[in-house]
Amino acid sequence: MNTEQAVIEVTREQHAAAMAEYLREGEARARALGNRGPVRYDGRGKLHPDILAAYWAHGFYVFEGVVGEAELAELRADATEMIERAPVRKGAVLDARGRPAHGREFAIEPYLLVRPLSDPWGGTDALGGRHPHKMTEPVPDPDAPESVPYLMFGMCQSMPAGLRLYGHPDLLAIAEAINGEDVVPYTDAVFVKMPGLGGSVAWHQDGITHWDNPNWDEGIHGFNFQVQLYRTTAANGLWVVPGTHKLGKVDIKAAVAANGGSDLLPDAVPLLCNPGDATIVNRQALHGSFANTSPDPRVSITFGFHRRASVLNVQGKLSIRPDDLRWGAGPAYDEQRVFDRSAVIAVAVDARRRRFPQETPYRYVPFAGLEDDFRFSEETWERVIRDYNVKDLAI
Fold first, then answer.
1. pLDDT single digits (tens) 21-48
2. d(Cα 172, Cα 151) in Å, to the nearest integer?
3. In 3-state terms, what secondary structure has residue 288?
4. DSSP 3-state of 122
5. How many angstroms separate the CA atoms of 231 and 55, rounded?
């Protein structure tokens, strides 16, 4: 596999074959951890303490069966539509079928496109240089397209089912249990790893801002959910090195060097999921994914949350716009910025209430008493949802 000294070209088939044993070993490690199961609550209606203990011990957890079949079908349909309406290449205004590409009217470009099976960030200074080692980049098949969707941004304005998912009562209850009842949002993106085409994400830790904070702890940079629309395997899924959220900033290049230059880190485990499962991963945990040379698609709806104290009056140092992958970009997040971005949760809760009236809606404490001002409507879509991601709280 990839080394710092030389890059040996491998085909898609050779990559898949070389990964096989590592994938089997990773699956066995993952199954042995025991940090997976359905969402459970204690007698007070709070997330069960055993789940919290497992999350804080390992830095991640797999929640099984969070999304039901009907909602899963709606999410798949919306995601498929968005994938199919992607620009045929970067800068294009038409999709592969000659239609106007989706999202030309939005302030932030909705798509990050990459060369098939590539690692767009590894070994670069993008995103604060947090991906210091470049992953193996297999050679795609001769008939592969020029570029493929890698990330899709702005699900709450582009996917009606995505907005409703943002208001999911179980996911928001989990967020509250981790970050407090005044939990605030981070950002969202849909990872797309199509069979034989999907790019890799180099080993990294998400956090940028708080590594030197005197109040640093293992949860200061928040976490991300990923809701899986298809079966997630060791070959196409996210891998995490358990416990690394406790270690501070990891020397990733040294870890790869100690592994003989291989990107197959020995202690990592894959997040194995069925459709409708949701994972939670601490943003300080060391994680990444390999080029998807498998026959299985992965579409992961990803959205994160912070403690309010981690973002309020803190200068954002991380930009994840497709055209602006900088470190040190952004203003301090004042009360108004935090309120405006958090309002998306309030609107999402009401949008979900209308679609799933049998559920008990989540009560979002920062907007208690303001519910009528943030009902889902054309007016709040324009006021709160349109271009909401220009106000992301990225640290």
1. 999 999 999 999 999 999 999 999 999 9
2. 23
3. strand
4. coil
5. 22
Residue 9 confidence (pLDDT) above 90? no
Tell me the domain boundaries of the chain: 12-391
Strand partners, 70: none
Q: What are phi and psi of 391, to 5 degrees?
A: -110, 20
CATH number of 12-391: 2.60.120.620
* pLDDT tens digits for range 80-113: 999 999 999 999 999 999 999 999 999 999 999 9
Instruction: State the amino acid at position 371 in one-letter form.
Output: E
Helix axes 169-179, 49-58, angle to 10 degrees: 60
| Strand pairing class (36-37; 60-63) | parallel
Task: Check: CB of residue 282 under 8 Å from CB of residue 59.
Answer: yes
User: What's the first-to-final CA gap in the chain, in angstroms?
Assistant: 32
Q: Which residue matches tokens 């080692």?
A: 133
Q: Which pair of tokens denotes residue 167?
A: 């208001």
| Cα–Cα distance, 181 to 167 (Å, whole number) | 14
Give the rounded percent of residues in the chain with a pLDDT score beyond 70.
95
From residue 364, alpha-carbon distances to 124, 145, 183, 309, 367 in Å are 39, 44, 9, 17, 6
pTM of the model: 0.95
